[in-house]
Specification:
By secondary structure, the protein is an alpha/beta fold. The chain has 2 domains: about 10-265 and about 470-490, Aldehyde Dehydrogenase, Chain A, domain 1; about 270-455, 3-Layer(aba) Sandwich (Aldehyde Dehydrogenase, Chain A, domain 2). The protein contains 14 helices and 22 strands. It has helices at about 55-75, 80-95, 95-105, 110-130, 170-180, 195-205, 225-230, 245-255, 280-290, 310-325, 345-360, 410-420, 435-440, 475-480, and strands at about 1-5, 15-20, 20-25, 25-30, 35-40, 45-50, 140, 150-155, 160, 185-190, 215, 235-240, 260-265, 270-275, 300-310, 365, 380-385, 400-405, 425-430, 445-450, 470, 485-490. It has a 7-stranded mixed sheet, sandwiched between helices. Strand 3 (about 20-25) and strand 4 form a beta hairpin. The longest helix has 21 residues, at about 110-130. The radius of gyration is 23 Å and the shape is globular. It binds NADP nicotinamide-adenine-dinucleotide phosphate. NADP nicotinamide-adenine-dinucleotide phosphate binds near residues 165, 166, 192, 243 and 268.
Protein backbone atom coordinates (compact mmCIF):
# COMPACT_ATOMS: atom_id res chain seq x y z
CA UNK A 1 0.00 0.00 0.00
CA UNK A 2 1.10 3.50 -0.62
CA UNK A 3 -0.02 6.81 0.77
CA UNK A 4 -1.16 8.27 -2.50
CA UNK A 5 -1.31 12.04 -2.51
CA UNK A 6 -3.75 13.62 -4.88
CA UNK A 7 -3.14 17.23 -5.87
CA UNK A 8 -5.25 19.42 -3.60
CA UNK A 9 -6.89 20.80 -6.72
CA UNK A 10 -8.36 17.35 -7.09
CA UNK A 11 -9.10 16.36 -3.53
CA UNK A 12 -9.99 18.79 -0.81
CA UNK A 13 -8.93 16.30 1.85
CA UNK A 14 -5.58 15.67 0.16
CA UNK A 15 -4.89 11.98 0.58
CA UNK A 16 -6.35 8.66 -0.30
CA UNK A 17 -4.88 5.24 0.27
CA UNK A 18 -4.46 3.42 -3.01
CA UNK A 19 -2.65 0.17 -3.75
CA UNK A 20 0.20 0.50 -6.25
CA UNK A 21 1.62 -3.03 -6.16
CA UNK A 22 0.78 -6.36 -7.76
CA UNK A 23 -2.38 -8.12 -6.62
CA UNK A 24 -1.71 -11.85 -6.49
CA UNK A 25 -3.89 -14.26 -4.53
CA UNK A 26 -5.50 -11.45 -2.53
CA UNK A 27 -2.20 -9.89 -1.43
CA UNK A 28 -0.69 -6.64 -2.62
CA UNK A 29 2.98 -7.39 -3.24
CA UNK A 30 5.94 -5.51 -4.54
CA UNK A 31 7.67 -7.11 -7.51
CA UNK A 32 10.61 -9.28 -6.46
CA UNK A 33 12.82 -7.06 -8.63
CA UNK A 34 11.68 -3.97 -6.64
CA UNK A 35 11.58 -2.13 -9.97
CA UNK A 36 8.98 0.65 -10.26
CA UNK A 37 7.28 2.28 -13.23
CA UNK A 38 6.36 5.97 -13.10
CA UNK A 39 2.78 7.06 -13.58
CA UNK A 40 2.41 10.49 -15.15
CA UNK A 41 -0.38 13.08 -15.02
CA UNK A 42 -0.82 14.03 -18.71
CA UNK A 43 -2.32 17.39 -17.68
CA UNK A 44 1.06 18.47 -16.27
CA UNK A 45 3.56 15.82 -17.49
CA UNK A 46 4.52 15.38 -13.80
CA UNK A 47 5.10 11.99 -12.17
CA UNK A 48 2.28 11.31 -9.70
CA UNK A 49 3.02 7.79 -8.52
CA UNK A 50 4.94 4.63 -9.29
CA UNK A 51 3.75 1.06 -9.66
CA UNK A 52 5.31 -2.39 -9.38
CA UNK A 53 6.91 -3.94 -12.46
CA UNK A 54 5.94 -7.62 -12.72
CA UNK A 55 8.25 -10.25 -14.17
CA UNK A 56 7.10 -13.24 -16.24
CA UNK A 57 7.60 -15.41 -13.12
CA UNK A 58 5.12 -13.20 -11.27
CA UNK A 59 2.75 -13.73 -14.19
CA UNK A 60 2.94 -17.45 -13.47
CA UNK A 61 2.43 -16.78 -9.74
CA UNK A 62 -0.81 -15.00 -10.70
CA UNK A 63 -1.85 -18.04 -12.78
CA UNK A 64 -1.14 -20.21 -9.70
CA UNK A 65 -3.36 -17.95 -7.60
CA UNK A 66 -6.13 -17.96 -10.21
CA UNK A 67 -5.90 -21.76 -10.42
CA UNK A 68 -6.12 -22.14 -6.65
CA UNK A 69 -9.23 -19.96 -6.48
CA UNK A 70 -10.90 -21.48 -9.56
CA UNK A 71 -12.66 -24.61 -8.19
CA UNK A 72 -14.45 -22.87 -5.34
CA UNK A 73 -15.39 -19.84 -7.44
CA UNK A 74 -16.78 -22.10 -10.21
CA UNK A 75 -18.71 -24.04 -7.55
CA UNK A 76 -20.06 -20.91 -5.85
CA UNK A 77 -23.79 -20.63 -6.45
CA UNK A 78 -24.61 -18.25 -9.32
CA UNK A 79 -26.85 -16.29 -6.94
CA UNK A 80 -23.96 -15.77 -4.50
CA UNK A 81 -21.64 -14.67 -7.30
CA UNK A 82 -24.38 -12.41 -8.57
CA UNK A 83 -24.79 -10.75 -5.18
CA UNK A 84 -21.06 -10.08 -4.95
CA UNK A 85 -21.13 -8.50 -8.41
CA UNK A 86 -24.13 -6.41 -7.41
CA UNK A 87 -22.14 -5.21 -4.39
CA UNK A 88 -19.25 -4.26 -6.70
CA UNK A 89 -21.72 -2.14 -8.69
CA UNK A 90 -22.99 -0.43 -5.55
CA UNK A 91 -19.54 0.25 -4.17
CA UNK A 92 -18.28 1.74 -7.40
CA UNK A 93 -21.30 4.02 -7.57
CA UNK A 94 -20.71 5.05 -3.92
CA UNK A 95 -17.16 5.98 -4.92
CA UNK A 96 -18.00 7.57 -8.24
CA UNK A 97 -16.52 10.99 -7.55
CA UNK A 98 -13.07 10.01 -6.39
CA UNK A 99 -12.80 7.28 -9.02
CA UNK A 100 -13.66 9.89 -11.66
CA UNK A 101 -10.93 12.16 -10.27
CA UNK A 102 -8.47 9.31 -10.34
CA UNK A 103 -9.26 8.48 -13.98
CA UNK A 104 -8.97 12.12 -14.91
CA UNK A 105 -5.67 12.38 -13.09
CA UNK A 106 -3.94 9.46 -14.77
CA UNK A 107 -5.70 9.53 -18.15
CA UNK A 108 -6.32 13.25 -18.59
CA UNK A 109 -9.95 13.07 -19.68
CA UNK A 110 -12.35 15.81 -18.60
CA UNK A 111 -14.22 15.07 -15.36
CA UNK A 112 -17.68 14.73 -16.95
CA UNK A 113 -16.24 12.07 -19.29
CA UNK A 114 -14.51 10.38 -16.36
CA UNK A 115 -17.70 10.32 -14.31
CA UNK A 116 -19.68 8.86 -17.24
CA UNK A 117 -17.01 6.23 -17.57
CA UNK A 118 -17.24 5.21 -13.90
CA UNK A 119 -21.01 4.83 -14.20
CA UNK A 120 -20.65 2.86 -17.45
CA UNK A 121 -17.98 0.69 -15.78
CA UNK A 122 -20.17 0.00 -12.74
CA UNK A 123 -23.10 -0.96 -14.96
CA UNK A 124 -21.23 -4.04 -16.19
CA UNK A 125 -21.34 -5.43 -12.64
CA UNK A 126 -25.05 -4.74 -12.38
CA UNK A 127 -25.77 -6.20 -15.82
CA UNK A 128 -23.75 -9.37 -15.23
CA UNK A 129 -25.12 -9.76 -11.69
CA UNK A 130 -28.44 -10.11 -13.50
CA UNK A 131 -27.19 -12.23 -16.43
CA UNK A 132 -25.07 -14.60 -14.34
CA UNK A 133 -28.15 -16.24 -12.82
CA UNK A 134 -29.72 -16.65 -16.25
CA UNK A 135 -27.15 -18.74 -18.05
CA UNK A 136 -29.57 -21.09 -19.67
CA UNK A 137 -28.54 -24.18 -21.59
CA UNK A 138 -30.50 -25.98 -24.28
CA UNK A 139 -32.32 -29.24 -24.68
CA UNK A 140 -33.46 -30.79 -27.94
CA UNK A 141 -34.10 -34.02 -29.78
CA UNK A 142 -31.60 -35.16 -32.39
CA UNK A 143 -33.08 -35.08 -35.91
CA UNK A 144 -32.89 -38.89 -36.11
CA UNK A 145 -34.97 -39.10 -32.95
CA UNK A 146 -32.40 -41.42 -31.41
CA UNK A 147 -31.37 -39.27 -28.44
CA UNK A 148 -31.71 -35.97 -26.61
CA UNK A 149 -29.16 -33.19 -26.96
CA UNK A 150 -28.47 -31.49 -23.63
CA UNK A 151 -26.25 -28.41 -23.63
CA UNK A 152 -25.00 -26.59 -20.57
CA UNK A 153 -22.54 -23.77 -20.13
CA UNK A 154 -19.44 -24.14 -17.99
CA UNK A 155 -16.76 -21.56 -17.04
CA UNK A 156 -14.12 -21.48 -19.77
CA UNK A 157 -11.32 -21.35 -17.18
CA UNK A 158 -8.51 -19.03 -16.18
CA UNK A 159 -8.90 -15.82 -18.16
CA UNK A 160 -6.18 -13.34 -19.06
CA UNK A 161 -7.55 -9.84 -19.55
CA UNK A 162 -5.50 -7.07 -21.17
CA UNK A 163 -6.88 -3.53 -21.29
CA UNK A 164 -5.95 -0.15 -22.85
CA UNK A 165 -5.52 3.27 -21.26
CA UNK A 166 -8.40 5.11 -22.91
CA UNK A 167 -11.17 3.72 -20.65
CA UNK A 168 -9.17 2.43 -17.67
CA UNK A 169 -12.27 1.50 -15.65
CA UNK A 170 -14.82 0.42 -18.23
CA UNK A 171 -12.54 -1.72 -20.40
CA UNK A 172 -11.56 -3.64 -17.27
CA UNK A 173 -15.05 -4.15 -15.85
CA UNK A 174 -16.48 -5.06 -19.29
CA UNK A 175 -14.23 -8.14 -19.05
CA UNK A 176 -14.02 -8.83 -15.30
CA UNK A 177 -17.78 -8.80 -14.67
CA UNK A 178 -18.75 -11.41 -17.31
CA UNK A 179 -15.67 -13.54 -16.47
CA UNK A 180 -16.66 -13.67 -12.81
CA UNK A 181 -20.36 -14.12 -13.58
CA UNK A 182 -19.51 -17.12 -15.76
CA UNK A 183 -17.50 -18.62 -12.87
CA UNK A 184 -13.98 -17.87 -14.14
CA UNK A 185 -11.01 -16.52 -12.20
CA UNK A 186 -8.82 -13.98 -13.93
CA UNK A 187 -5.63 -12.01 -14.29
CA UNK A 188 -5.93 -8.40 -15.37
CA UNK A 189 -3.08 -6.54 -17.04
CA UNK A 190 -4.07 -2.88 -17.30
CA UNK A 191 -2.27 -0.41 -19.55
CA UNK A 192 0.91 0.96 -17.99
CA UNK A 193 -0.24 4.55 -18.48
CA UNK A 194 -3.40 4.10 -16.37
CA UNK A 195 -2.88 1.37 -13.75
CA UNK A 196 -4.19 3.20 -10.68
CA UNK A 197 -7.84 2.93 -11.68
CA UNK A 198 -7.47 -0.82 -12.16
CA UNK A 199 -5.88 -1.19 -8.71
CA UNK A 200 -8.65 0.91 -7.17
CA UNK A 201 -11.32 -1.22 -8.80
CA UNK A 202 -9.65 -4.45 -7.65
CA UNK A 203 -9.50 -3.07 -4.11
CA UNK A 204 -13.19 -2.17 -4.23
CA UNK A 205 -13.98 -5.66 -5.50
CA UNK A 206 -12.24 -7.18 -2.49
CA UNK A 207 -14.23 -4.92 -0.17
CA UNK A 208 -17.35 -6.17 -1.99
CA UNK A 209 -16.46 -9.78 -1.14
CA UNK A 210 -14.64 -11.11 -4.20
CA UNK A 211 -12.46 -13.92 -2.75
CA UNK A 212 -8.64 -13.84 -2.98
CA UNK A 213 -7.24 -15.10 -6.28
CA UNK A 214 -10.47 -14.59 -8.23
CA UNK A 215 -9.08 -11.32 -9.58
CA UNK A 216 -5.32 -10.76 -9.83
CA UNK A 217 -3.77 -7.59 -11.23
CA UNK A 218 -0.32 -7.24 -12.76
CA UNK A 219 1.44 -4.18 -14.13
CA UNK A 220 4.64 -4.46 -16.10
CA UNK A 221 7.07 -2.57 -18.30
CA UNK A 222 7.45 -5.73 -20.43
CA UNK A 223 3.95 -6.51 -21.63
CA UNK A 224 5.20 -8.81 -24.38
CA UNK A 225 7.31 -11.06 -22.13
CA UNK A 226 4.69 -11.22 -19.37
CA UNK A 227 1.87 -12.08 -21.79
CA UNK A 228 4.00 -14.65 -23.59
CA UNK A 229 4.65 -16.43 -20.27
CA UNK A 230 0.98 -16.41 -19.30
CA UNK A 231 -0.23 -17.50 -22.74
CA UNK A 232 2.30 -20.36 -22.76
CA UNK A 233 0.77 -21.81 -19.60
CA UNK A 234 -1.58 -24.73 -20.28
CA UNK A 235 -3.88 -23.68 -17.45
CA UNK A 236 -4.88 -20.41 -19.15
CA UNK A 237 -7.92 -20.94 -21.41
CA UNK A 238 -9.06 -17.45 -22.36
CA UNK A 239 -7.49 -14.25 -23.64
CA UNK A 240 -9.69 -11.18 -23.75
CA UNK A 241 -7.87 -8.20 -25.20
CA UNK A 242 -8.84 -4.60 -25.85
CA UNK A 243 -6.30 -2.45 -27.61
CA UNK A 244 -4.78 -1.75 -30.98
CA UNK A 245 -5.18 -4.05 -33.98
CA UNK A 246 -1.40 -4.22 -34.22
CA UNK A 247 -0.97 -5.67 -30.70
CA UNK A 248 -4.08 -7.82 -31.18
CA UNK A 249 -2.38 -9.52 -34.12
CA UNK A 250 0.71 -10.33 -32.02
CA UNK A 251 -1.43 -11.74 -29.21
CA UNK A 252 -3.49 -13.90 -31.58
CA UNK A 253 -0.24 -15.44 -32.81
CA UNK A 254 0.94 -15.99 -29.22
CA UNK A 255 -2.37 -17.57 -28.24
CA UNK A 256 -2.28 -19.95 -31.20
CA UNK A 257 0.26 -22.34 -29.67
CA UNK A 258 -2.05 -23.39 -26.86
CA UNK A 259 -5.24 -22.83 -28.92
CA UNK A 260 -6.47 -20.31 -26.38
CA UNK A 261 -9.94 -18.86 -26.98
CA UNK A 262 -9.56 -15.18 -27.94
CA UNK A 263 -11.88 -12.21 -27.76
CA UNK A 264 -10.41 -9.16 -29.46
CA UNK A 265 -11.73 -5.60 -29.18
CA UNK A 266 -9.45 -3.70 -31.53
CA UNK A 267 -9.10 -0.41 -33.34
CA UNK A 268 -11.71 1.49 -35.31
CA UNK A 269 -12.07 4.10 -38.05
CA UNK A 270 -15.71 5.07 -37.69
CA UNK A 271 -17.48 6.87 -40.54
CA UNK A 272 -20.19 9.41 -39.67
CA UNK A 273 -22.70 9.87 -42.50
CA UNK A 274 -24.99 12.91 -42.63
CA UNK A 275 -27.66 13.01 -45.34
CA UNK A 276 -29.30 16.20 -46.62
CA UNK A 277 -32.56 15.35 -44.85
CA UNK A 278 -30.92 14.99 -41.40
CA UNK A 279 -32.13 17.40 -38.71
CA UNK A 280 -29.09 19.69 -38.52
CA UNK A 281 -28.98 20.37 -34.82
CA UNK A 282 -29.52 16.70 -33.88
CA UNK A 283 -26.76 15.68 -36.29
CA UNK A 284 -24.42 18.26 -34.77
CA UNK A 285 -25.23 17.10 -31.23
CA UNK A 286 -24.58 13.50 -32.23
CA UNK A 287 -21.38 14.45 -34.05
CA UNK A 288 -19.99 16.16 -30.98
CA UNK A 289 -20.68 13.10 -28.81
CA UNK A 290 -19.35 10.67 -31.41
CA UNK A 291 -16.21 12.75 -31.92
CA UNK A 292 -15.46 14.39 -28.60
CA UNK A 293 -16.47 11.83 -25.99
CA UNK A 294 -13.22 11.04 -24.23
CA UNK A 295 -11.47 13.84 -26.15
CA UNK A 296 -11.61 11.75 -29.31
CA UNK A 297 -9.58 8.97 -27.66
CA UNK A 298 -12.19 6.26 -28.22
CA UNK A 299 -12.20 3.25 -30.51
CA UNK A 300 -15.74 4.24 -31.48
CA UNK A 301 -14.80 7.87 -32.16
CA UNK A 302 -16.11 9.27 -35.44
CA UNK A 303 -13.00 9.54 -37.59
CA UNK A 304 -14.40 10.52 -40.99
CA UNK A 305 -17.44 12.77 -41.51
CA UNK A 306 -19.13 12.21 -44.90
CA UNK A 307 -21.69 14.97 -45.30
CA UNK A 308 -24.11 15.31 -48.24
CA UNK A 309 -23.61 18.36 -50.44
CA UNK A 310 -26.86 20.17 -49.54
CA UNK A 311 -26.08 20.26 -45.80
CA UNK A 312 -22.28 20.32 -45.98
CA UNK A 313 -21.80 24.07 -45.43
CA UNK A 314 -24.31 24.36 -42.59
CA UNK A 315 -22.90 21.25 -40.88
CA UNK A 316 -19.32 22.51 -41.28
CA UNK A 317 -20.20 25.93 -39.82
CA UNK A 318 -22.03 24.26 -36.94
CA UNK A 319 -19.10 21.97 -36.14
CA UNK A 320 -16.60 24.83 -36.20
CA UNK A 321 -18.85 26.84 -33.89
CA UNK A 322 -19.23 23.98 -31.38
CA UNK A 323 -15.60 22.89 -31.48
CA UNK A 324 -14.39 26.47 -30.99
CA UNK A 325 -16.40 26.74 -27.76
CA UNK A 326 -14.70 23.77 -26.06
CA UNK A 327 -12.51 24.78 -23.15
CA UNK A 328 -9.10 23.13 -23.02
CA UNK A 329 -7.46 22.46 -19.66
CA UNK A 330 -6.40 19.88 -17.07
CA UNK A 331 -8.94 17.09 -17.08
CA UNK A 332 -9.81 17.56 -13.41
CA UNK A 333 -10.21 21.36 -13.53
CA UNK A 334 -13.76 22.70 -13.38
CA UNK A 335 -15.16 23.80 -16.78
CA UNK A 336 -12.67 21.73 -18.77
CA UNK A 337 -14.34 20.30 -21.85
CA UNK A 338 -11.19 18.80 -23.34
CA UNK A 339 -8.27 17.52 -21.31
CA UNK A 340 -4.81 16.53 -22.55
CA UNK A 341 -4.06 13.54 -24.76
CA UNK A 342 -2.46 10.55 -23.07
CA UNK A 343 1.18 11.27 -23.91
CA UNK A 344 3.58 13.23 -26.09
CA UNK A 345 3.66 10.68 -28.90
CA UNK A 346 -0.15 10.80 -29.18
CA UNK A 347 0.07 14.59 -29.67
CA UNK A 348 2.79 14.15 -32.25
CA UNK A 349 0.80 11.53 -34.16
CA UNK A 350 -2.33 13.70 -34.29
CA UNK A 351 -0.21 16.66 -35.45
CA UNK A 352 1.36 14.66 -38.25
CA UNK A 353 -2.03 13.34 -39.46
CA UNK A 354 -3.37 16.92 -39.59
CA UNK A 355 -0.24 18.15 -41.39
CA UNK A 356 -0.48 15.38 -43.98
CA UNK A 357 -4.18 16.18 -44.60
CA UNK A 358 -3.42 19.90 -45.07
CA UNK A 359 -0.52 19.16 -47.40
CA UNK A 360 -2.88 17.05 -49.51
CA UNK A 361 -5.36 19.90 -49.84
CA UNK A 362 -7.63 19.91 -46.76
CA UNK A 363 -8.72 23.33 -45.46
CA UNK A 364 -7.78 23.90 -41.80
CA UNK A 365 -10.77 25.74 -40.30
CA UNK A 366 -9.88 25.51 -36.62
CA UNK A 367 -6.98 24.49 -34.37
CA UNK A 368 -4.18 22.41 -35.83
CA UNK A 369 -1.46 24.26 -33.96
CA UNK A 370 0.81 22.92 -31.25
CA UNK A 371 0.30 24.50 -27.83
CA UNK A 372 3.09 25.92 -25.79
CA UNK A 373 2.14 24.66 -22.33
CA UNK A 374 3.18 21.82 -20.06
CA UNK A 375 1.20 18.61 -20.50
CA UNK A 376 0.10 16.82 -23.65
CA UNK A 377 -2.50 19.04 -25.24
CA UNK A 378 -3.90 19.18 -28.75
CA UNK A 379 -6.56 21.80 -29.57
CA UNK A 380 -10.02 21.13 -31.04
CA UNK A 381 -9.38 21.01 -34.79
CA UNK A 382 -11.59 21.01 -37.89
CA UNK A 383 -10.47 20.05 -41.40
CA UNK A 384 -12.79 20.51 -44.38
CA UNK A 385 -12.55 18.98 -47.87
CA UNK A 386 -10.16 16.26 -46.74
CA UNK A 387 -8.78 14.63 -49.88
CA UNK A 388 -8.81 10.91 -50.71
CA UNK A 389 -5.46 9.33 -49.91
CA UNK A 390 -4.95 11.39 -46.74
CA UNK A 391 -3.57 9.33 -43.87
CA UNK A 392 -6.21 10.76 -41.54
CA UNK A 393 -8.88 8.81 -43.43
CA UNK A 394 -7.03 5.52 -43.00
CA UNK A 395 -5.72 5.66 -39.43
CA UNK A 396 -7.37 6.12 -36.07
CA UNK A 397 -6.94 9.79 -35.16
CA UNK A 398 -7.51 9.27 -31.43
CA UNK A 399 -7.76 13.00 -30.86
CA UNK A 400 -10.04 16.04 -31.16
CA UNK A 401 -9.94 16.39 -34.94
CA UNK A 402 -13.01 16.50 -37.21
CA UNK A 403 -12.32 15.55 -40.85
CA UNK A 404 -15.09 16.61 -43.23
CA UNK A 405 -15.68 15.27 -46.74
CA UNK A 406 -18.70 16.05 -48.90
CA UNK A 407 -20.57 13.52 -51.03
CA UNK A 408 -23.41 13.64 -53.57
CA UNK A 409 -24.83 10.13 -53.89
CA UNK A 410 -25.73 7.59 -51.20
CA UNK A 411 -23.69 4.95 -53.03
CA UNK A 412 -20.56 7.13 -52.82
CA UNK A 413 -21.01 7.59 -49.06
CA UNK A 414 -21.44 3.85 -48.48
CA UNK A 415 -18.41 3.01 -50.61
CA UNK A 416 -16.25 5.54 -48.76
CA UNK A 417 -17.55 4.39 -45.36
CA UNK A 418 -16.53 0.81 -46.15
CA UNK A 419 -13.14 1.77 -47.59
CA UNK A 420 -11.19 0.73 -44.47
CA UNK A 421 -9.80 -2.42 -42.93
CA UNK A 422 -11.68 -1.57 -39.73
CA UNK A 423 -15.35 -2.21 -38.94
CA UNK A 424 -16.12 -1.28 -35.35
CA UNK A 425 -18.65 1.56 -35.19
CA UNK A 426 -20.46 3.79 -37.71
CA UNK A 427 -22.97 6.63 -37.44
CA UNK A 428 -25.81 7.56 -39.80
CA UNK A 429 -28.05 10.63 -39.66
CA UNK A 430 -31.16 10.86 -41.82
CA UNK A 431 -34.85 11.65 -41.27
CA UNK A 432 -35.80 8.85 -43.66
CA UNK A 433 -35.78 5.65 -41.60
CA UNK A 434 -36.17 3.46 -44.68
CA UNK A 435 -33.00 4.95 -46.10
CA UNK A 436 -31.39 4.72 -42.65
CA UNK A 437 -31.95 0.97 -42.36
CA UNK A 438 -30.90 0.41 -45.98
CA UNK A 439 -27.62 2.21 -45.33
CA UNK A 440 -27.10 0.34 -42.02
CA UNK A 441 -27.51 -2.98 -43.80
CA UNK A 442 -24.75 -2.04 -46.28
CA UNK A 443 -22.19 -0.65 -43.84
CA UNK A 444 -19.53 -3.14 -42.79
CA UNK A 445 -19.45 -2.51 -39.08
CA UNK A 446 -20.23 -4.38 -35.87
CA UNK A 447 -22.20 -1.45 -34.45
CA UNK A 448 -24.14 1.39 -36.05
CA UNK A 449 -25.75 4.36 -34.34
CA UNK A 450 -28.74 5.52 -36.40
CA UNK A 451 -29.60 9.10 -35.49
CA UNK A 452 -27.52 8.76 -32.31
CA UNK A 453 -23.98 9.72 -31.37
CA UNK A 454 -23.35 6.85 -28.96
CA UNK A 455 -23.40 3.06 -29.29
CA UNK A 456 -21.92 1.84 -25.99
CA UNK A 457 -24.40 0.11 -23.70
CA UNK A 458 -23.76 -2.76 -21.25
CA UNK A 459 -26.92 -4.44 -22.52
CA UNK A 460 -25.80 -4.41 -26.17
CA UNK A 461 -23.21 -6.59 -27.95
CA UNK A 462 -20.14 -4.40 -28.41
CA UNK A 463 -17.58 -5.45 -31.00
CA UNK A 464 -16.29 -5.16 -34.50
CA UNK A 465 -15.99 -6.92 -37.84
CA UNK A 466 -13.01 -7.04 -40.24
CA UNK A 467 -9.80 -6.05 -38.43
CA UNK A 468 -11.68 -4.43 -35.54
CA UNK A 469 -11.97 -7.65 -33.65
CA UNK A 470 -13.42 -11.01 -32.76
CA UNK A 471 -16.29 -11.68 -30.36
CA UNK A 472 -18.56 -9.36 -28.42
CA UNK A 473 -18.56 -7.73 -24.99
CA UNK A 474 -21.60 -6.66 -23.01
CA UNK A 475 -25.05 -8.26 -23.23
CA UNK A 476 -25.59 -12.03 -23.02
CA UNK A 477 -23.01 -12.44 -25.82
CA UNK A 478 -20.30 -11.08 -23.52
CA UNK A 479 -21.08 -13.73 -20.92
CA UNK A 480 -20.82 -16.56 -23.43
CA UNK A 481 -17.28 -15.42 -24.34
CA UNK A 482 -16.28 -16.79 -20.90
CA UNK A 483 -18.21 -20.04 -21.17
CA UNK A 484 -17.83 -23.33 -22.97
CA UNK A 485 -20.88 -25.17 -24.22
CA UNK A 486 -20.81 -28.77 -23.04
CA UNK A 487 -23.08 -31.18 -24.91
CA UNK A 488 -24.30 -34.46 -23.49
CA UNK A 489 -25.98 -36.97 -25.81
CA UNK A 490 -28.60 -38.76 -23.72
CA UNK A 491 -30.65 -41.84 -24.29
CA UNK A 492 -33.81 -40.82 -22.45
P1 LIG B 1 -2.20 -1.00 -27.20
O1 LIG B 1 -0.92 -0.30 -27.39
O2 LIG B 1 -2.57 -2.09 -28.13
O3 LIG B 1 -2.17 -1.53 -25.69
C1 LIG B 1 -3.26 -2.21 -25.13
C2 LIG B 1 -2.78 -3.11 -24.02
O4 LIG B 1 -1.93 -4.10 -24.57
C3 LIG B 1 -1.97 -2.39 -22.95
O5 LIG B 1 -2.26 -2.98 -21.71
C4 LIG B 1 -0.54 -2.69 -23.36
O6 LIG B 1 0.37 -2.67 -22.31
C5 LIG B 1 -0.70 -4.11 -23.87
N1 LIG B 1 0.37 -4.52 -24.79
C6 LIG B 1 1.14 -3.77 -25.60
N2 LIG B 1 1.99 -4.56 -26.28
C7 LIG B 1 1.76 -5.83 -25.89
C8 LIG B 1 2.32 -7.09 -26.22
N3 LIG B 1 3.29 -7.22 -27.12
N4 LIG B 1 1.83 -8.18 -25.61
C9 LIG B 1 0.84 -8.08 -24.71
N5 LIG B 1 0.27 -6.92 -24.34
C10 LIG B 1 0.71 -5.80 -24.94
O7 LIG B 1 -3.44 -0.01 -27.21
P2 LIG B 1 -3.61 1.35 -26.41
O8 LIG B 1 -2.77 2.38 -27.06
O9 LIG B 1 -3.49 1.11 -24.95
O10 LIG B 1 -5.17 1.66 -26.66
C11 LIG B 1 -5.64 2.27 -27.80
C12 LIG B 1 -6.15 1.26 -28.79
O11 LIG B 1 -7.16 0.46 -28.20
C13 LIG B 1 -6.81 1.90 -29.98
O12 LIG B 1 -6.42 1.23 -31.15
C14 LIG B 1 -8.29 1.70 -29.72
O13 LIG B 1 -9.10 1.71 -30.86
C15 LIG B 1 -8.29 0.38 -29.05
N6 LIG B 1 -9.52 0.21 -28.26
C16 LIG B 1 -10.45 -0.67 -28.72
C17 LIG B 1 -11.64 -0.81 -28.03
C18 LIG B 1 -12.70 -1.75 -28.49
O14 LIG B 1 -13.58 -2.07 -27.71
N7 LIG B 1 -12.66 -2.23 -29.73
C19 LIG B 1 -11.85 -0.08 -26.86
C20 LIG B 1 -10.87 0.80 -26.42
C21 LIG B 1 -9.69 0.93 -27.13
P3 LIG B 1 1.31 -1.40 -22.05
O15 LIG B 1 0.41 -0.31 -21.64
O16 LIG B 1 2.21 -1.84 -20.98
O17 LIG B 1 2.00 -1.12 -23.36
Amino acid sequence: MHNFTMPTAVFANGTRILPVNLLIGGEWRESETKRRIDVVDPSTAQVISSIADATPAEGIAAVDAAEKAAPSWAATAPRVRSEILRKCFEKIIENVDWLAHLISLENGKALPDAKSEVIYAAEFYRWYAEQGVRMHGEIGVSPSGSNRIVVQYEPIGISFLITPWNFPAAMATRKIAPALAAGCTCILKPATETPLTAFAIAQIMHEAGVPPGVINVLTTSKAGALSQAILSDDRVRKLSFTGSTEVGRILLRNAADKIISCSMELGGNAPFLVFDDAPLSDALDGAMVAKMRNGGEACTAANRFYVQKGIYKAFTDGIVDRMSRIQLGPGYAPDTGLGPMINASAVQKIGSLVEDAVQRGARLLLGGVSLNRPGYYYPPTVLADVQPGSQILREEIFGPVVSLISFEKQEDAIRSANDTEYGLAAYVYTSDLKRGFQVCSRIESGMIALNRGLVSDPAAPFGGVKQSGLGREGSYHGLLEFAEAKYVAVNW
